Amino acid sequence: MENQTLLTIEDLSVQFVSAGVQTTALSGLSLTAKKGEILAVVGASGAGKSLLAHAVLGLLPKNAEVTGRMTYKEQALNEKTLPRLRGTEITLIPQAVTYLDPLMPVGRQVYYPMNKQEGRAKTAALFEEYGLSPEVMKKYPFELSGGMTRRVLFSAAVLSGAKLLLADEPTPGLSRETARHVLRHLRAFAKEGRTVLLITHDLDLAVECADRVAVLYAGTLLEIAPATDFTEDGAALRHPYSQSLWNALPQNGFHPIAGNMPSPGERVKGCPFAPRCLKKTALCWEKPVPLRPLRGGTVRCIHAT
Ligand SMILES: Nc1ncnc2c1ncn2[C@@H]1O[C@H](COP(=O)(O)OP(=O)(O)OP(=O)(O)O)[C@@H](O)[C@H]1O
Ligand code: NI
């Protein structure tokens, strides 16, 4: 049962049509998340991390065109099944803190799906664990700091009983210590056999907390690696971008990557990282590079061995 797949995404693409112009924000993304694991999704701002979470939940805006297949416990995720699964089986800790109802005290927003007395007690206990005083229960969202709001959103997700938690940047605005605390809770969540998709641009925290790490770049999944492969000089990693990202961390020498990630409107036919890659050859530009399994992970690079 340990390796049971909970979520499967196959060949997911998201395009936006705006003023007659079509841009591809996510292309050909495939991954699976297993029961009881924390799968981190890392990538720079604009890489497509939030879009992935929103696509899984069917929360993309109307001008988004989604193709590909997604299943949860072997049932297709679509307009028919999602309303039933959202919030009960699959839940989101949103990146934007505007998801709370501005007119309802935050305590009630956390416990309202439950019986009032039991819900209140559970919420109070959870708030205490997250360093939120009991008075916070009665406060309105506008009275909270960003970090407090995040902890409230996290409490709501934990109490929902969902089996799949999509945590979109749960740690910004938190001190390193509180961030670690939140991540410990994600680990406890996974230990109960629940699954976490941890979306973050903080590779360091991802490696510390997750079982596997998926690396997104310009809307393209470049690698999925066991977190333990992020070690030393990154030689165990499969994609040059993952290696560069790892070696750009201060503790790994702070080697910056020259150039910028292309925006959705300026993407190339082949590997999106090719323009910045030290291993590039003419072949990298020629045609789209497929994902392939390699050394216990997945990679999208023709040169990876
Ligand atoms: N409604 C939309 N219409 C058009 N383009 C969009 C829309 N929403 C997102 N995008 C584009 O899709 C790309 C990915 O956005 P996304 O929010 O997933 O990035 P992200 O990786 O979550 O970044 P961040 O770390 O900043 O949260 C961006 O280039 C963004 O401009
Ligand atoms: Ni985001």
Descriptive notes:
The chain is an alpha/beta fold. The protein has a domain at 5-89 and 200-209 and 216-299: P-loop containing nucleotide triphosphate hydrolases (Rossmann fold), CATH 3.40.50.300. The chain contains nine helices and twelve strands. The protein has helices spanning 49-57, 82-85, 106-111, 116-129, 146-159, 176-191, 203-209, 240-247, 283-286; strands spanning 5-18, 21-34, 38-42, 64-72, 75-76, 90-93, 164-168, 195-200, 212-217, 220-226, 292-294, 297-299. The strands form two sheets. The chain has an eight-stranded mixed β-sheet, sandwiched between helices. The chain has a four-stranded antiparallel β-sheet with strand order 2-1-4-5, with helices on one face. Helix 4 crosses helix 5 (146-159).
Brief descriptors of the model:
Rossmann fold; single chain; binds adenosine-5'-triphosphate; 305 residues; 8-stranded mixed β-sheet; binds nickel (II) ion; alpha/beta
How do the helices and strands line up, and which of them pair or pack?
Blueprint: E1 5-18, E2 21-34, E3 38-42, H1 49-57, E4 64-72, E5 75-76, H2 82-85, E6 90-93, H3 106-111, H4 116-129, H5 146-159, E7 164-168, H6 176-191, E8 195-200, H7 203-209, E9 212-217, E10 220-226, H8 240-247, H9 283-286, E11 292-294, E12 297-299
Parallel strand pairs: 3-8, 3-9, 6-7, 7-8
Antiparallel strand pairs: 1-2, 1-4, 4-5, 9-10, 10-12, 11-12
Helix pairs in contact: 4-5
The protein binds adenosine-5'-triphosphate (ATP) and nickel (II) ion.
Adenosine-5'-triphosphate is lined by residues 16, 18, 25, 43, 45-51, 61, 95, 201, 263-264.
